[in-house]
Write a structure and sequence with these properties.
Naphthalene 1,2-dioxygenase Alpha Subunit, Chain A, domain 1; 2 domains; binds FE2/S2 (inorganic) cluster; binds fe (ii) ion; Rieske Iron-sulfur Protein; globular
């Protein structure tokens, strides 16, 4: 059981923002968004404006996208390629490694030590092609290289085995929903809802209420078999492949979902937008950039199926959110088929040291 306040309490969301969304490694995107040296993306959904840049040596650096003069946003574009980043206000210019290179009319800033006025760094790293950032200024002496592989643990090999590292991003979109970010995650962690909620869309491909859940540290690995898996009984075991006959859904704690499908992967990053709203940024990871209208049409059709199903999910989540304040329920009940939700909320509590409910 979970107290319904978990989905609306302002003090809790403040704590989650301060702990989960500042101190943990957060997946923010995919390596294919910034393949070449000098490629960059900006990212704001965590609540901290970030600038992530591909280094010449192939790694990634991340900075707070705020000028060290008087605080203007330095880079406005969502992505691009640059050798330097120039603040639009007075033109202070920073190099690709964040170092402050140029102060126009520098004689007016005799007291400023340029070496200590670079963009503020945050820890960043990649694992299995996923870009992770910990969006808080580095502590004194803290390493800027984020060990994302250690954070994912054994899931690194799973994701690499499914080709997540070598894929390319396609069809990004972002939607705002009137529900707690935790409700948006809950929706994906059980198949108990599949038949009623997705009756006429994706349910016919799957079994009713059948899924396998593994806890992997704070994360989860879910396997949702499709009806076609029964055909394998007649085929030699050496020819079996899981992804052809099951969806594999990874929950990367706290807020990312990676859904492996037969020939591509879908990623959803769920960002809190206050206690009772969330922004869901999603995209497909496909084997190569689509080179023809036919290829684009194929992936667009896959995206449409995904987004159609997730709209059905979010409709239920928004319905729950609206009902929270009615007084009908003091707590929500998780049944045996919903134990992954219990794990998720226990991890949220463990990390935020919130009162156990
Ligand atoms: S605030 Fe950026 S140069 Fe002045
Ligand atoms: Fe669903």
């Amino acid at each position: 059981m979970l107290d319904v306040s978990a989905y609306s309490d302002e003090a809790l969301i403040d704590r989650e923002n301060q702990v989960l969304f500042r101190e943990l490694p957060l997946a923010i995107g995919h390596a294919s968004q910034l393949p070449r040296p000098g490629d960059f993306i900006t990212h704001d959904a965590s609540g901290v404006p970030l600038l992530v840049v591909r280094r010449d040596d192939g790694g990634v650096d991340a900075f707070i996208n705020v000028c060290r003069h008087r605080g203007t946003r330095v880079e406005a574009a969502p992505h691009g390629n640059k050798r330097a980043f120039s603040c639009p206000y007075h033109g202070w210019t920073y190099g690709k490694r964040g170092q402050l290179v140029t102060i126009p009319h520098e004689r007016g800033f005799a007291c400023v030590d340029k070496t200590s006025r670079g963009l503020v760094r945050v820890a960043a790293g990649e694992a299995s092609g996923i870009v992770f950032v910990r969006p808080a200024p580095l502590a004194e002496g803290e390493d800027a290289a984020l060990d994302a592989r250690a954070w994912l643990g054994p899931l690194v090999e799973d994701l690499e085995g499914f080709g997540v590292s070598s894929s390319v991003l396609y069809g990004a979109r972002s939607v705002d929903k009137a529900l707690s970010w935790k409700l948006a995650i809950d929706i994906f962690l059980e198949t108990y809802h599949l038949r009623p909620t997705h009756k006429d869309t994706i349910y016919p491909m799957f079994f009713d209420n059948l899924g396998l859940v593994d806890r992997v540290g704070p994360h989860l690995r879910n396997v949702f078999p499709k009806r076609t898996i029964n055909q394998l009984a007649a085929e030699p075991e050496s020819s079996w492949t899981l992804r052809a006959h099951a969806n594999v859904l990874f929950h990367l704690f706290p807020n990312t979902l990676v859904l492996v499908q037969p020939d591509h992967t879908a990623v959803l990053h769920v960002w809190p937008n206050g206690a009772t709203r969330a922004t869901v940024a999603s995209y497909l990871l496909v084997p190569e950039p689509p080179a023809s209208d036919k290829a684009r049409g194929y992936w667009d059709a896959n995206a449409a199926v995904l987004y159609g199903a997730t709209e059905e999910d979010f409709t239920m989540g928004e319905s729950i959110q609206r009902g929270l304040s009615s007084g009908a329920n003091r707590e929500v009940v998780f049944g045996a088929f919903e134990h992954a939700l219990g794990h998720f909320h226990a991890e949220v509590r463990r990390h935020t040291h919130a009162r156990s409910v």
